[in-house]
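Fold this: 15-oxoprostaglandin 13-reductase
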Amino acid sequence: MSIRYAFNSDPKPQTRKIIVDESAATASPGRRNLTISNLENTGVCNPPDPSNFRVEDCTIPKIEDGEVLVETVYLSMDPAQRCQMNEETGVDYIEPLRLGETVHGLGGMGKIIQSKCETLNVGDIVVNSELGWPWQRICVRKASELTKGNLRKGETCVISSAAGAVGMLAGQICKLLEAGRVIGITSTPEKCEYLLTSNLGFDSAIAYKTEDVSTKLKEMAPEGVDLYFDNVGGDISDTVIKQMNEGGDVILCGAISTYNTDVGYPPPISEELQQIIRQKSINRNRFLVLDYTTEFPEALRTLEAWFRDGKLKCEVTMRYGLENAGSAFVEMMEGKNIGKMLVEVTSPRKG
């Protein structure tokens, strides 16, 4: 018997029975699996809630040739997963969650406990090379599934959601690529303090909940903004774009401010902003990491070298236990994390 997680939504959720495949074989006697399945969609304009998820036992499946059985160590919590909780995601590269089925997140890491693959062995640590990792303690993976901006030297860069997993790395990379000034926008003074005192390369930071972004940005970047790494959309992005220089670059990476609304992605912009973009010849391009899969190996080598040399720092907010994945996802959507939100499903030190 194994366990899985489910996904709810309405104020009065309808409980659905999860169908378990009783014919699947158990990988090893006494090993208990756990899956988080979705029970109900949240509704396009409602924030997610821990009650949207349910933990259930399920069987441990058999593996076929070319597959491995993986015990999940870490699950990645990503804002883009919020789009999966709608009937339509608005994009073609991730599918909506299905009621009563296991939640499929975007990333994870695990240890192989059974293998029918010549290239992967029991004990190997693996990550997904394609989007998708089930919220499940033990899962089957195919072997084939495992294993932008024009920044110029001296330019001024602004990073929104700068204390999050992506923003924190984007700011550091801008500095490593010799940006002149890197400005982070985040929610609270405490997060600003973290950005400025942790040697992350940020020259200044703005707490949008307590400070006027427009005023502070003019003080910090009196000559204007050259590159904007946009993780949030909405009013903050409108404010930054209005202070951009001619020929500047906007990298559309995310729009978390609109994820609990019925606004599409990329979010539409006003006629005023469209006119500013045209008049200043600002490049506003969507960044999708899947467009750069051929560059992954070289990028990973560069990032690993920076990390080993102490030039790139990673902060993690950790929650423990698969049963807490739903709550961790909600915390991440509410901005209660610094850096990457992870769920430790099983201890990496075990075995």
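Helices lie at 165-176, 189-197, 213-220, 234-242, 271-279, 296-308, 325-333. The first helix runs from residue 165 to 176.
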